[in-house]
Design brief:
The chain has helices at about 1-10, 25-45, 45-50, 55-70, 75-100, 100-110, 125-130, 135-145; strands at about 115, 120, 150-155, 165. It is of the alpha+beta class. The chain has a 4-stranded antiparallel β-sheet. The protein is elongated, with a radius of gyration of 23 Å.
Length: about 170
């Protein structure tokens, strides 16, 4: 067992400083991290990849950030991969809690907000969400195929940041 551990350590550059890793060691680390991340994503959920909310995007940013460190050797390889699994499982647990608790879902994912009602802009909500009239008009043309807000019954900034339109 010790011989295998030594062989694996040498192959992956375990215990070496980042500056001392070879191209081969970094490449093998990248393969391992890629495969582990693929498993993590499959353990997570498809929604996380779709970036439906800030909650989902945070998972991807954190994973990318610290798994890259496992590849370049600035963080321990296997401990970092293990922490990646913990983060994915935590994300899954929080999403499950949000499914069962509307209050908790609002806390971690936010809530949709109405920015147009019966063709009238709600400027205070648009301001709070950093949506200009020009941004709204662009989304209106692209998503609702309308020229102006007079044809909109309700428009909402969804939890994902997308704007949804319900026509009159």
């Amino acid at each position: 067992m010790n011989a295998f551990s030594d062989f694996l350590g040498g192959l992956l550059g375990l215990g070496l400083e980042a500056k001392d890793l070879t191209f081969t060691q970094i490449s093998l680390r990248a393969i391992i991290v890629f495969l582990a991340t693929l498993i993590m994503v499959r353990l997570g959920h498809k929604r996380s990849l779709a970036r439906k909310s800030a909650f989902d995007a945070i998972l991807l940013v954190i994973l990318a950030s610290f798994l890259a460190r496992a590849i370049n050797g600035t963080a321990p390889l296997f401990a970092t991969i293990g922490a990646g699994f913990v983060i994915v499982l935590l994300n899954r647990l929080l999403a499950l809690m949000a499914f069962y608790s509307h209050w908790f879902g609002i806390l971690i994912k936010g809530r949709p907000e109405i920015i147009v009602e019966n063709g009238n802009l709600i400027l205070s909500t648009m301001y709070r969400n950093h949506i200009s009239k020009h941004d709204l008009e662009e989304d209106l043309r692209l998503d609702a195929q309308l020229e102006d807000v007079s044809g909109v019954r309700v428009a909402r900034v969804e939890r994902s940041g997308d704007i949804s339109f319900i026509k009159k």
